[in-house]
Amino acid sequence: MKPKLLVVADTYYPKVDGVLVFMEEFLKRAHHDFDLRLLVPAFSKEKKIDSLKITFLDIYSKMKMFTYEGIKINLKNIRKIKEAIYDANSIFIQELGPAGIMALHYAKKYGKKKVLYIHNTPWDFLSKYFALNRFWSEIIKQFFVRWYNKSDVLLIPYPGLIDELRIAGVHAEMQVARLGVDISRFSPVKDKNKAKTKLELPLKPIIGYVGRISNEKNTLTLLHAFKKLGRKDVVLLMVGDGRPELVKKFRESRNVIVTGFVNNVEDYLQAMDIFVMPSLTETTSLATLEAMATGLPVVVTKVGFMKNYIVKDQNGVFFPRNSVSLLSLKMDNLLRKSDLRERLGQNARKTVTTNFTWDKSINKIKKFLD
Fold it and tell me: What is the value of pTM for the model shown?
């Protein structure tokens, strides 16, 4: 009899982010080993795997946070969480939003095995998203550290994060399990113009970004750097959605296209000529790895795991955080040198195919859960 594994997350379709991508890949590879169950918000009640048992948590239809509604903290949802936890052997939590925190609480109360994957450092994300001062950042950090220490095992995406978490006060067991990329889905194309025509995009050089349009992603730096280029023959393509006031600035700018959330990210990456990740905070940055797998030259900030898997001028280019001028110069240099774009893109693809595969990562995770 297969062990009952409950996967808990504060994200679900139609929202598309790194956490959801990880869940998709994990569920595809784990359903032979576990009796899988899912506990998620009811953004949509679509089932991607017919045999999967899903408990949907009610959401606040008129209250949004990070572009999507939060789950209701009421007796009905608490009862659903308790029943789902009680019926499982192990709990695999994806993030510590309201659902994740309550699941961790009741899993500890009912003596269930608790494994938590840290997809980001939430105090860093929240501090930059809301532009908080050091006092509030420290309060938030200690809150999450307290919950991390209730887990049996913390899975983290890269080794360097261990020291950061230990310094913050995390004493729970930690194991490294890298994220991966579907290298068949995210692959280069020979004809860029054909890829652009497929999406009805202009047949011009495209600088692209994938992710939230928000403060912590530092997307305004990208917008200002793009404007500083002063080139009418280049397009900025923002694949994603985010804070309305920021999205409005992009939509009102000349030669800028904002797609909103899409399900075919790979098609948009294949239409790009350069990929930029200007973020102030990242762990792995799955979007950057997917761009690299697509054979794109990437221009990124030196944060999180990116500073390890990207080698300067070999498989990518760095620029200092918040430096509009230097980002503009890096993009201009790549636009002018097609041979440099080609070399960086080829090396980027090799980096991902060699070091970031889902099978290797998820097989390791299954050992901790079994």
Answer: 0.88
